[in-house]
Amino acid sequence: MADGKVMKLRRTLHQSGVVEMIEAQFEGLPGPPGYPVRLVLLGLVCASYERTSSNLDDAFEIMTFGTSERLRAHLSFQPATSRTRMRSTRFTTASTAPGPA
Question: What's the pTM?
Answer without folding.
Answer: 0.72
